[in-house]
Design a protein that fits this description.
alpha/beta; Rossmann fold; 6-stranded parallel beta sheet; 6 helices; 6 strands; about 35% helix
Length: about 160
């Protein structure tokens, strides 16, 4: 099953916008996209569902056991060409600030899904690389597949 988790350093980085645009772009290429939202969110899944043309599912590790999450994911993902999972908060933010429990990183590991970071590049340049490297190195067991820079001011900012 093709899948990826879109995660970020913090809320407000643009995960929902990027996830919805990615779902729409994949759908426009003729792929059937299964959208998911990690955590107990009711608004973001409506955007993902509209963009994907398919119902979005919540994968909430507070309410569902790991086995239930894997079963729900497998059942829905098996009907699609690719699954796009939008993370919640920051990549390592969950119930307990001292662990990854109930975080996007935790669910990416559970589902063996590669992670694409969405980083807000506004008001920064080279520091974006340090943030991405820090997120990668903090969880070396995660499969970091790439980085999408959001809010890039223009070509010269992108070149930095």
């Amino acid at each position: 099953m093709n899948r990826l988790v879109l995660a970020a350093p913090h809320s407000g980085s643009g995960k929902t916008t990027v996830a919805a645009l990615l779902c729409l772009a994949l759908r426009n290429r003729g792929l059937k996209v299964a959208p998911f939202k990690l955590g107990p969110d009711y608004l973001d899944p409506t955007h993902l569902a509209r963009a994907a043309g398919q119902p979005a599912r919540n994968l909430d590790s507070f309410l569902l056991s790991p086995e239930q999450i894997k079963a729900m994911f497998a059942r829905t993902a098996s009907q699609a060409d690719i699954s796009v999972l939008e993370g919640m908060m920051g990549l390592y933010d969950g119930r307990d600030p001292a662990s990854d429990a109930h975080s996007s990183a935790d669910l990416a590991r559970l589902l063996d899904a590669p992670v694409v970071l969405v980083i807000d590049a506004s008001a920064s340049a080279r520091t974006v690389a340090a943030v991405a490297q820090g997120l990668r190195d903090f969880g070396p067991d995660l499969k970091l597949a790439g980085v999408i820079l959001n809010r890039v001011a223009g070509p010269s900012h992108a070149a930095l």
